[in-house]
Design brief:
alpha+beta; 6-stranded antiparallel beta sheet; 17 strands; globular
Length: 594
């Protein structure tokens, strides 16, 4: 894992190495092991490395292949790079390193834009072809690795986060009104290509972009998810066997493709516990596991150690438990906001941030259970949507998911930023796309390809990489996702959701872990709006800079402040926190109020 950035001048003027250095300074935490830059006239690249595969200097970046006339900056991990290397060697290519980075260079030379379809893993990269004078950028199928870009006049830049682009200067930081609508209706999800800032865009998952020396851009979707049944019906036992085999392979690959130890973020839930069981089953010895907990409140326990301890006991892992005092959660919340590439409403971002700090002192790579709920239907709103038989697909979805309907959004946002129902139009279009057999197929596909990308996936990437920790997510292996998408929704939603995973876990995990109610990261200090947490939000939203920004209508804001614990979204988010988080993010990232 790494931080990448680059600049392409479209007027053939020399690219700015000063801009590259400014961007690299904002990427250091993503790659603390090495920094390097490259320039070739109108192009310059910067890279911050987190050494995971081939720890030698031969795999430092930017990586240049002078013989082929190529230069590359790459963030990610290619799990099939050894097989691709052998295939490319058979074609006559010679390698000077032992890692996965060089495989991308040779793959581009051999197969051009089709190279990304051969990559099995997580990736975002920029590749300069000296001979063709083209910049090729690509992002993995599920958007696990980020890739942002901006264009100012004759300059195009890209980076792993918007903060790097802002540091280079010249970015339009005004609010994108369409993105603002998405933010407050889709639980902080702003689907690509937009971000909350007009001047920053992001490459969509499963897409590549080719830019020539004159600025002509060609963008292409190289992967789409099919959510229809196979032509020949499959018995339930075949589905379960195929899912189990594919998941085992995904977990094993993410453990073996690393030249450093790989641990597991063990929450005590089914998903992360199953990763531990499958790694033990694959013969991984001296398995490291990590859990975090917080202080209890009268309403709720602050940890799930009772469940993670059961897994640790069964598999004798080398386990670390971190207990974080509530006052530290609040004191360090601004740090977590600083680590957010874009505004994130989920309060467990702070938990991941604090956990990652501790884990990064022990290992460089962890496996995490993100994606299982989306891929296998584990959230409580899926059965509610399925049971909703009245209305259009948009109405059936929105009734159980949207944080705010459009009329409430208009009561929230000032007239200067109000507009049409952008989210309704987008979601209706996505649910109506071809390739989904039923309404629930369309819902689950939307979640996996769009909603998860800019909520839990981005959150995990941002919070772990803030400490130079690589998170691997086997439940989002694209081959597993493809298989699960074609599986009948009723099989996935059985027994409250995630039935295929529960079936696999029987005999591998204690029944208490499998049959426990679906849990969410316990964060009592941020869940119950009172005391210092409420004061932080009130101070943020009533500050001079917030009033001058004028995003929110005062009657709506006053209503939330008068009863801060009484206004929640359909998926249990606190509406006051949404407003405060966006304002806090803007103050720290755009206004510079740090």
């Amino acid at each position: 894992m790494c931080g990448i950035c680059g600049e392409l001048r479209l007027d053939e003027a020399p690219a700015s190495l000063a801009a590259i250095q400014s961007m690299m300074a904002k990427l250091t935490r993503r790659g603390p092991d090495h920094g390097g830059s490259y320039s070739d006239g109108a192009v310059a690249f910067g890279h911050r490395r987190l050494s995971i595969i081939d720890l030698s200097v031969r795999s430092n970046q930017p990586m240049v292949d002078a013989e082929l006339g190529l230069a590359l900056v790459f963030n990610g991990a290619i799990y099939n790079y050894r097989a691709l290397r052998q295939e490319l060697q058979a074609l006559g290519y010679r390698f000077f390193s032992e890692g996965d980075t060089e495989v991308i260079l040779k793959a581009w030379h051999a197969w051009g834009t089709d190279c990304v379809e051969r990559l099995h893993g997580i990736f975002a990269f920029g590749l300069w072809d000296v001979n063709r004078r083209t910049l090729f950028m690509a992002r993995d199928r599920l958007g696990i690795k980020p890739l942002y870009w901006s264009e100012q006049g004759e300059t195009l830049r890209f980076a792993s986060n918007p903060q790097a682009l802002l540091a280079a200067g010249g970015v339009d930081t005004s609010i994108d009104p369409v993105a603002l609508h998405h933010l407050f209706t889709l639980h902080a999800v702003v689907p690509a290509p937009r971000t909350i800032l007009r001047g920053v865009r992001k490459l969509a998952p499963g897409h590549w972009m080719l830019v020539d020396a004159h600025g002509k851009r060609t963008e292409h979707a190289y992967w789409r998810l099919d959510a229809t049944r196979p032509p020949t019906p499959r018995p339930e036992a075949d589905w379960l066997d195929a899912i189990h085999t594919t998941l085992r392979h995904a977990v094993k690959a993410r453990s073996e493709v690393a030249d450093v130890p790989v641990g597991v973020l063990l929450s005590g839930g089914l998903d992360s516990s199953l990763l531990v069981a499958l790694l033990a089953e694959a013969g991984v010895s001296d398995l490291r596991t990590f859990s975090v907990g917080f202080e209890d409140t009268p309403e709720e326990a602050g940890s799930e150690f009772v469940y993670s301890d059961l897994v640790v006991e069964r598999y004798s892992t080398r386990h670390c438990k971190f207990l974080v005092p509530n006052d530290q959660v609040l004191a360090r919340l601004p740090e977590a906001v600083d680590a957010m590439a874009e505004p994130m409403f989920a309060q467990d971002a702070v938990a991941f941030y604090l956990l990652s700090e501790q884990v990064a002192r022990e290992v460089k790579v962890v496996q995490s259970g993100q994606g299982a709920d989306e891929v296998f239907g584990g959230y409580f709103w899926y059965p509610r949507m399925e049971a909703e038989t009245e209305g259009t697909p948009l109405e059936r979805f929105g009734k159980h998911y949207f944080d705010r309907d459009h009329d409430e959004y208009l009561r929230l946002i000032s007239a200067a930023h109000a507009g049409d129902d952008h989210t309704g139009a987008l979601i209706a279009e996505r649910l109506d796309e071809a390739g989904a057999e039923t309404f629930m197929d369309a819902v689950l596909r939307l979640d996996v390809t769009t909603l998860i990308v800019d909520d839990p996936v981005k959150r995990v990437d941002n919070m772990t990489m803030a400490w130079g920790l690589e998170a691997r997510v086997p439940f989002l292996d694209h081959q597993l996702v493809e298989l699960a998408a074609r599986c009948p929704p009723e099989l996935k939603l059985r027994e409250g959701g995630k039935y295929p995973l529960k079936a696999l876990a029987r005999g591998l995990l204690p029944d208490a872990v499998i049959d426990r109610p679906k849990g969410y990261f316990p964060m009592p200090a941020l869940k119950y709006v009172r005391g210092p947490f409420l004061e932080l939000m009130r101070d943020t939203l009533t500050s001079r800079v917030s009033r001058e920004r004028g995003l929110y209508r005062k009657p709506y804001l006053d209503q939330l402040l008068a009863a801060p614990d009484m206004h929640h979204t359909r998926i249990q988010g606190n509406k006051l926190w949404h407003l405060a988080l966006l304002e806090l993010w803007l103050q720290r990232h755009v206004d510079g109020c740090v």
